[in-house]
Amino acid sequence: MNEVLKRLQLFLKKLGKQIFSLLRRFSKSLLPLWKRLCKWFRSLFVSTDDKDAKLLTLYKQPQTKSILSSLISIFAGIVLGGIILLIMALTSGGSTSFKSAWEGFQLIFLGVFNTGRDASGNLSFGLNYVSIGDVLFRATPLILTGLSIALAFKTGLFNIGAPGQYLMGTAATFIVALSIPTSVVPSWIVWTLAFLSGILAGALWGAVIGFFKSQLHINEVITGIMTNWIAANIVTSLFDNLTGPFANLLDPSGTKNKSYLYKTAHNGVQTAKMGLDKLFPGSQVNGGIIIAILIAVLVYIVINKTTFGYELKACGHNRNAAKYAGINEKRSIVYSMSIAGGLAGAGAALYYLAGNTEFYWSTYQSLPAIGFNGIPIALLAYNNPLGVIFSGLFMSYLNEAGMKLKYLTPFNEYITDIIIASIVYLSAFSLAVKEFLNGRRHKRNVHQPETEKKPQEVIKDLEAEK
Amino acid sequence: MVYLLQNTILYTVPLMIVALAGVFSERSGIINIALEGIMVMGAFIGVVFVRAIIEAGLPFEYGQLLLILGILIAIVGGGLFSLLLAFASINLKADQTIGGTALNLLAPAVVLFMILDINDQSVLKVSNATEYFMLNQSDFGLGTKFENPLGVIGNVLFNKTYITTWICLIIFVVLAIILYKTKFGLRLRACGEHPQAADSVGINVNKMRYFGTCISGCLAGLGGFVYAVTIDDCASTGDVAGFGFLALAVMIFGNWKPLSIAGASLLFGLLKCIAAGYAYIDINNDGVFWLNELKISSHIYRILPYVITLIVLAFTSKKSRAPKAEGIPYDKGMR
Q1: A-proximal residues of B, 155-214, CB under 8 Å
Q2: Whose CA is closest to A407, among A103, A83, A80?
Q3: Which of A145, B151, B265, B304 to pair with A266, CA 20 to 30 A apart?
Q4: Is ipTM > 0.90 here?
Q5: Residues of B with CB below 8 A from A412's CB?
Q6: Cβ-count burial of A36 within 10 angstroms (0-12 exposed, 13-18 middle, 19+ buried)?
Q7: How far apart are the first and last CA of chain A?
Q8: pLDDT of residue A392
Q9: How many A-B residue pairs are in contact by the CB < 8 A criterion?
Q10: pTM confidence score
Q11: Do the Cβ atoms of B109 and A432 come within 8 Å?
């Protein structure tokens, strides 16, 4: 027994010695580790003679300036909205007070996190899953139309025909999703077919604009406007409740009485929820947002990492130079407009395949606003596909805040439209802001050449060395 | 037939004026996509002014004077609103498409916000507007419709018309003459074709561009107010149904020249009115509605103006002469 105890004691002592020596070695290297950490932290902020501070290097990159000026214009736009609310509160006498202006301002900033009013009548804030889910749901078509216009801008074209492509995508999606009976074909196949046909319809419609631009040299703005209205009329004529070939898809139930199409859920075709409805219960969110983000990443990869994307960008920068370099610029224009059209059609497909969105078929008098809302989204994101994700989410967030404003305060929801418009206007200042930000750095660097030696002094030094 | 011609003129006139607005701006070198927004703003400002005065109680005889005052106010309002675009494009050298799109988004938002704030509905209406503004036969001293039926031309010119039509036509002719026959017009056009050359002669390019954009805004505001009074029955809805973009198309279709623009607007107006009322057009008053007999779907009629534009553009695009320096911010250092 004593033997065992003695052996145990010896073993424990050895273990203790080993742990202790490990700790000593560790603490010996810990101090340098801590020193390294301090050094790294210092290098973020302090510039030496050889290297700029890391944050300064990040700041000097052009993308940072773009993001910064975007953020500045967003902030300025929101402040402008707050000022307008304040002016409304001041000038409208007694009906709206400062309290409601302050509440309105809070709602603009934190609209998604508002959970209504509590018992004492104040706004309460928390995690409003329905709001967040709805923001994600409504961001899906906005991201995709933003991508469509951003891609067109990157290739030098102004895709103002996005609403027309959106409408053609809508029509194709509904026709395919509602015509194929899900009792015969599994619903996921119908969903895929409808999605692909939406993309294809949008792409073909965009190719029309591309064809007119590349072959006939007609400005794509005018072709876009014309094709918008032609598409609106074509879609109306397809679903016309008296003479349209697809009039059987109209929903005669309830008060609608054949003014709306059947929702796609009527045929059992719905986008898979992909677990998002557990995350945001009660909202309309579905897997569409994930598909939209994946498409945005795909577009980013194609544009920036493939030869094909490089050709498209080259044609956008200088059409003649691209032709001289051997790129078939006519085909590139058609391709880029088709892809842009396909993206807009995909936005329409995802929005309506959610299953519970209705479509009013008589659309020949007004174009869908979602198509035009893609323009500020693309502009805010500087046409970067990954940035479009964020600006699409931001615009959807502002729209949701506007709805909350309408329901909870005496203001109306157009204040968010004013904010979005002023953000876009202020982002036009971004070039001036960038030059301002650049100008400060330039002034600091002006002093450096004076510390360099003049050439005669250098020669004198060399001769002195001999 | 009379109905067709009356409505055609009502639709043609604002289209002509707004397309001319686009011409003035683009000829001075600024792409003005904001025509739609400025129209909305001009319509709103004019309608608010007219509504305020009518609600304060105005006898019917002063209706035409009120209309002229409303036109002036809409012109000033449109000009001021377009200064935003001018400032962003000229001083800050921003992308003119962005500035135009921003104004297109800003105007309906501000207008709808104010409309909802003023009367809690989404439309701002003026009651009895036609009694104030519309001119009938009897106003010209030609007796009523039943006593003295005029022919087609007489009905079109003197019955159910507005003085805005004549005012706009006069303004159109005067401005076209200014653009082509005066010193100011030549300098304006020079700034859009080759601003460096203009600058070397001593023309202040930025000032000329400001003038061009301001005149463009004034005309677009006028066009918007005329649209609201004649087509929308003196109501401001915050939306002009794509009219501004259509005017852009007419401008490109008319090759940036006033006479072609007038012809293109007439064509668009005619086709649009045929589309709206083809079942009731009785061309030679013999009781036969010929177009209705052809049984062409109404959708084809509605598509017709746009398809014809595309076809004509396809054939005439070789001669398309846009102002050469439009869209490029003027930089003195690039001479």
Answers
A1: none
A2: A103
A3: A145
A4: no
A5: 112-113, 116-117
A6: exposed
A7: 88
A8: 93
A9: 132
A10: 0.82
A11: no
